[in-house]
Amino acid sequence: MAKCEEGSDRMDVEENIVDKSQCNDDASQKESGWKKFLAHVGPGFLVSLAYIDPANLETDLQAGANHRYELLWVILVGLIFALIIQSLSANLGVVTGKHLAELCKMEYPKFLKLFLWMLAEVAVIASDIPEVIGTAFALNILFHIPLWIGVLITGSSTLLLLGLQRYGERKLELVISMLVFVMAACFFGEMSYVKPPAGKVIEGLFVPKLSGIGATGDAIALFGALVMPHNLFLHSALVLSRKTKQSTKEINEACKYFLWESGFALCVALLINIAVISVSGTVCASNNLSPTNAYQCKDLSLNSAPFLLKNILGKSSSIVYAIALLASGQSSTITGTYAGQYIMEGFLDIKLKKWQQNLLTRSIAITPSLVVAIIGGPSGAGRLIIIASIILSFELPFALVPLLKFSSSNSKMGSHKNSLPIIVICWILGSMVIGINVYFLSTSFVAWLLHSGLPKYANVLIGMIGFPFMAIYVIAIMYLTLRKESDKSAELQKEIEKTVHRYDEA
Question: pLDDT per residue over 27-75, tens digit each?
Fold first, then answer.
């Protein structure tokens, strides 16, 4: 093969000119490829925030305190699964030109559409609770601001940052990406202080273990906190901002670039989660712990973690932790509001001005956090985070099942539908996630009944309500899974095929 060098003795003048032009074309194609990739950067970083939000930070802290590095493999497996489903969500938006909420509105009958919409809205509120409370905790650590005032400040600052939308979505994506890297720098700085043993960290990542007391429950909580239902709606909507031309080549390139971008963003999220668990595990395993600090490690939370780190690592570490928590919570609340906008527009076809949508979504989302912060204080806010995680586990199947069905549908995706191996892998992983969530919910409900301290008749009454409700829940998931597609799907595919054919001919 000829080299792109001048004065080659093995080429004549004409061949040299041709080869130079070919090399120039190759260089321009590479440059164009990089430009195209950078043009697609943004949605993956916004989506990755759900995997490093305050709820994840709390479960990471508890996993590290209780089991050191033993559960790191759960994070690795969870984020690999997250990359798969997030790529399916992005592909769905690119190919169909519609996001998941719009496709649900088109596919399902009215009663089911309203049911899914209400669940999606509750999921946005539940995902926003840890983010708002986490940000309020950070403001309390840094400036000693009361928790309820911190909740109000968080809501207001989120609206101000969302005002960047008027200057283009890329500006907002840049700000959020910067917050992600601020958080990464903070936790990597923390890890450099404590210096966790590299061998133990690598072993925890690649050698699955569930040997400690309560390891199974902590692993379920760790995995359940990773995958957020509102994220599936969000990613399929964010990719539409790139306005991909509906030609086969452009669609394939967009799907490839969004996969690369999501992979990079989730790698950053993986490293941050590893850093948090490693810091928590190393500090709580230290022999220099005082009795007070050892007690704190047994029930480590967003509120108690800075106190522990301050006593072990000095005042600067407490400040660094608070800055990281502030970056995590503030950026996550922005994406939650974004998701709420798309869900409301998609399911109900409501067209409001951006500031009206932001204000409505933000007001609905912060209300539970504000009420609990005023009445229950920090301890009540901490319990609310746990309740929010349970709600998200409950609701995940009602976003995951439609995504898996739509992305594997020939009538919606055409030639871009999932291949058979991907379909099998996704449904196996999806079934595992749903099974884990059902197990977590059922065992939590039974454990609560056994230790509630209520009279027997009250437990029986609650059981008579709760167990049929759980049966209805499983039946609803099975109905979504087995339901046949509507005729509207075929009409959508015909429109997509016509558009693609027209672009391919051009």
Answer: 445 446 777 878 788 888 888 888 888 888 888 888 888 888 999 998 9
Number of Cβ within 10 Å of residue 470's Cβ equals 14
| 434-450 per-residue burial string, b: 16 or more CB within 10 A, e: under 16 | bebbbebbeeebeeebe
Q: How distant, in Å, are the alpha carbons of 202, 219, 268, 278 from that of 199?
A: 5, 21, 21, 12
Is residue 403 within 8 Å of 232, Cβ to Cβ? Answer: yes
SS3 of 431, please? helix
Residue 42 per-residue DSSP state: S
Instruction: List CB contacts of 391: < 8 A, sequence separation 6 or more.
Output: 122, 123, 126
| Positive/negative CA dihedral, 110, 114, 119, 121 | positive
**End-to-end CA distance of the chain, in Å?**
33
Instruction: Please give the model's pTM, rounded to 2 decimal places.
Output: 0.81
- For 221-254, give the DSSP string: HHHHTT--HHHHHHHHHHGGGG---SSHHHHHHH
Task: Provide Rg for the chain, Cα atoms.
Answer: 25
Predicted confidence (pLDDT) per residue in 215-252, tens digit? 877 887 787 777 788 889 999 998 988 877 777 888 88
Measure the CA–CA gap between 478 and 53, rounded to whole angstroms: 30
Best CA proximity match to 262, nearest among 231, 287, 216: 231
Residues across the chain: 506
| Separation between Cα atoms, residue 332 and residue 341, nearest integer Å | 14
Residues 290-345 have pLDDT tens digits of 676 677 777 777 777 776 666 556 667 778 788 888 888 887 887 887 888 888 88
| Joined tokens for residue 461 | 């009454």
The pair phi, psi for residue 396, each rounded to 5°, is -55, -45
Query: In whole angstroms, how far apart are CA 355 and each of 342, 362, 368, 417?
Result: 14, 10, 21, 36
CA pair distance 340, 361, nearest whole angstrom = 6
Quickly tell me which residue has 């969530």 as its tokens: 437
